[in-house]
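Hello everyone,

My group is preparing for a crystallization screen and wants a predicted model to guide construct design. The compound we'll soak is zinc ion. Before spending weeks at the bench, it would help to have a computed complex in hand. I've included the protein sequence and the ligand's SMILES below. Output in structure-token form would be ideal because that's what our pipeline reads.
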Amino acid sequence: MKNRFLCPSCRADLKIKNSVIFSAHTTGGNKGLVLFSPELGNYSIVHVPGFSYTEGEHIDFFCPVCHANLGLPEKGKDLARVLMIDSKQTEYSIVFSEIAGKQCTLKMKEDTIVESYGEDAGEFANFWGAEPRY
Ligand SMILES: [Zn+2]
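Reply:
Good plan to model first. Here are the tokens for the complex, ready for your pipeline.
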């Protein structure tokens, strides 16, 4: 996969080899680096041994370079976003769930969902075209 993943704030590349790297903070106070697969819809997460979380826990994700919070509060309190640039140099937003175990990834161009991945994507797709419910 030749896609690049960038921080929306500082545009640093977050993909090294075959992993996308984030700094993560759990609600329970755990902090650590986590590695995501750059393959959209692949939810295997690698993390440092000292970092742990429980299913259903909210995890805040941060850029490991500029430490910007990748959360997307204007769309949903449990959503985060990174940029993806594909091999045709087209830029997309990749929106994903901040709830551990929730499988939801949206590939978006401007404000339109291009593709969605994961078995929980349906409920998150409602954030577009509908007002957030809180
Ligand atoms: Zn950054």
